Amino acid sequence: MMALNLSPDEYQALWLSVKVATCCVLLGIVPAIGLAWLLARCEFWGKSLVEALVMLPLVLPPVVPGYLLLLLFGRQGAIGGWLDQYGIQVAFHWTGVVLASLVMCLPLFVQSIRLSLQQQDIRLEQAAQLLGASRLRVFFTVTLPLCWSGILVGAVLAFGRSLGEFGATITFVGNINGETRTLPLAIYSAIQNPAGEALALRLIALSVLLALLALLMGNWLNQRHQSRLGHRHA
């Protein structure tokens, strides 16, 4: 097996990638559930436009969302200039990596949860309301538990998509060693160096391993959830 003898810089890239992916899942879960519920349960004027805007990052070249984020959150941007007054920097900072990754992974998160909601039997929610439960209580005690699998799949996809994010990140926050250089950017830097092939292969192996671990963990948690549901209905 290939030994992953990584330098402190490479370990830092690994740690940043995991930290960013985790932040994306934690920050994205509430808006993803909210948007998914809105698209799955509600009918309103402009719904098709909202759906298209949510899914837009999936079909755009990643450099486009990255550049738009730079225009908005750069120091001269409408939002970035305001944040700069309070000493908050997003562009060319690790927090910008989180923002870029969140924009790119949110559509997968939303779509997974939305599909799970659409597959639910809505009569279960209606029955709970007829028994006197409030809509909020139905949401937390019926809707969310039933779409747990979709939330879990979405979280795994968002985590994996964040680990592999490159285009929007390098456009928005650059490739700064020790600050914004995640694993994909470290691999890119390695292959630009004629002597960096061995390092690139090690980092690629590490990326594959992380992605596999995330998928296996997601499958294990989903199986446990399905097993618990089976015991409850037995």
Short description:
This protein is mainly α. The protein contains 11 helices and no strands. The relative contact order is 0.15.
Structure overview:
This protein has one domain (8-233): MetI-like fold. Helix 5 (94-118) runs antiparallel to helix 9 and helix 10 (183-191) packs antiparallel against helix 11 (197-233). The protein is 77% helix and 0% strand. The chain contains 11 helices and no strands. The chain is an all-alpha fold and 234 residues long.
Strand content: under 5%
CATH superfamily: MetI-like
CATH architecture level-2 label: Orthogonal Bundle
Work out the radius of gyration. 20 Å
Low-confidence stretches are none
Q: Which structural class is indicated by helix and strand composition?
A: mainly alpha
Q: Which of globular, elongated, flat, extended, rod-shaped describes the shape? A: globular
Number of β-strand runs: 0
The major sheet is characterized as: none
**What is the ordering of alpha helices and beta strands?**
HHHHHHHHHHH
The CATH class designation is: Mainly Alpha
State the helicity in percent bands: over 70%
Number of domains: 1
Number of helical runs?
A: 11
Distance from N terminus to C terminus (CA atoms, Å) equals 45 Å
Kindly report the CATH topology: MetI-like fold
